[in-house]
Design a protein that fits this description.
Layout lengths: L3 E6 L2 H15 L10 E4 L2 H7 L2 H13 L4 H8 L3 H13 L3 E3 L5 E3 L3 E6 L2
Parallel strand pairs: 1-2, 1-5
Antiparallel strand pairs: 3-4
Length: 117
């Protein structure tokens, strides 16, 4: 089953509404399917965290498979320190993960974005 991460720009009220809807759905019935969701308060915050360079890093890592940070930097033809910083942030955001042998990999098959006005 494909793993999809949903990325949204939404207010904290939207998160509360989603929680309330899930709570009511689960009441007396089986729990709803888990939803992997990442919300940002506004578009500038989303853009700050998912920069074009980080998006390129995600795409390259998805197509190449697990790599060391050094090999990833070499493949992207970018400075190791900058790639290391980007990898650390993407791990914090759960967009990539570190394997048991210190390689990094993308854990999602797809990332879907929704921007609400």
């Amino acid at each position: 089953m494909p793993k999809t991460l949903y990325v949204r720009v939404s207010t904290p009220d939207d998160a509360l509404d989603r929680f309330e809807a899930a709570w009511h759905l689960a009441s007396g019935r089986k729990a709803p399917a888990p939803l992997a969701l990442m919300s940002f308060a506004d578009l500038p915050l989303l853009a700050k965290n998912l920069t074009p360079a980080r998006w390129d890093l995600l795409k390259k890592l998805k197509t190449s498979g697990p790599l060391t940070v050094f090999a990833l930097a070499k493949t992207l033809e970018r400075d190791y320190k900058n790639v290391h910083t980007d990898v650390a942030r993407l791990i914090d955001l759960n967009l990539i993960e570190r394997t048991e042998n210190s390689l990094v990999r993308v854990s999602w098959d797809a990332v879907r974005a929704e921007l609400r006005l």
